[in-house]
């Protein structure tokens, strides 16, 4: 056997082994199962790794952009007309949210943590100076007092109304952006504070929220089930709330939005508990996106999250008292925020009933600027980009005993909205791309084996065919047919030597004389 033949046979054996092993691995999904098992078992909070450190101290910068609705025609609105507002902002703050007092519980299956948040103003990302810029908006403390007095005798309200008017307090107030956000000493609350010391005399939308946390959380680490990774076990010691009118609405579902389980599927619903909304919301898959070279799934709240209970009966539990429901696109949260009748929605009443949009001039809802969404890397479950947008509104309506409200048309009045954004930083994005490349190569290793086997098979076929062609050509040209008819010597010249009549190796050979 020649070297060429040995090489052909060896190539064939190697090719056969590669194809058999590769196809077997593809069918059995050994490497994919190994990768999935690794992700399920080891991407947990108990792993002392960069994942855990990122959970404790999130590296992507979080920015809070505050936009305010400046009221341009307060007198016209109080006279029964339609309010007109003009959006101003953004006023941007960098948010820092490290997790503190981290303590593992129950053999590492759960973890306790606080999540204090602090804010630092970022002038280069802002439209103005919050300590200088003025905004005219609804006097929320005044509205809160009127709302509280609804339960008092009718005869008490006119006297309170006259007293408030003597203080020069109106339904609309003019303050700096900084005061409305971070607090000021309110004259009406100061008077009440003297009678009821437990009532704070300061008011601000973010009053006492700089450097404080939203409650005590206990999370699942995913040690027992990877699908539970990051899910909230208890909030302030509670596994369910008591504000809403149904058990389903009171459930605390999902994570806090910072982490999700690995191996996310497009068809699943993701749940987030929003402490500031006092409820859990769900997000559904929208589309595939790419962020800094990383493929991600975009999830967003579907239309049914804030849909009217007539169209989505599961939302009936958010009507408090039971049966008193608002329309599509808004949620009354004053049940968990004592005081004014506060209502939340998406900015500019995006996805809300057109009646709320048309009740105020100056609103222009659109998906690009007002949609909340979350871009997740599906293999690891890590948020790559997040954009949480929410609007704060207040219900303004006629209150018997307060003459200034007698001509008001009931309106859900927009105050401000916040755009909370976070995008993975370049260093973390580079590490994520490297990790995903390794995962892709390892999980596709059986396909690489099959591909190599196919290449060797093609090489084997080509070499074999060429070898056969060479052998056939040699057989055809090395020998010619030997004539079986002897030459007639009588017809040849006498002086010409005789020949044997055969041609060997393409050359005539003279016959030997006897």
TrEMBL record:
GO molecular function: scavenger receptor activity
Source organism, top-level taxon: Eukaryota
Annotated signal peptide: none
Record-annotated membrane-spanning stretches: 7-31, 435-464
Keywords tagged on the record: Glycoprotein, Membrane, Transmembrane, Transmembrane helix
Region (Disordered): 476-514
Record localization: Membrane
Predominant location: membrane
Annotated GO biological process: protein targeting to lysosome; receptor-mediated endocytosis
InterPro entries in the cross-refs: CD36_fam (IPR002159), LimpII (IPR005429)
GO CC terms in record: lysosome; membrane
Assigned protein family: Belongs to the CD36 family.
The name this protein goes by in its record: Scavenger receptor class B, member 2a
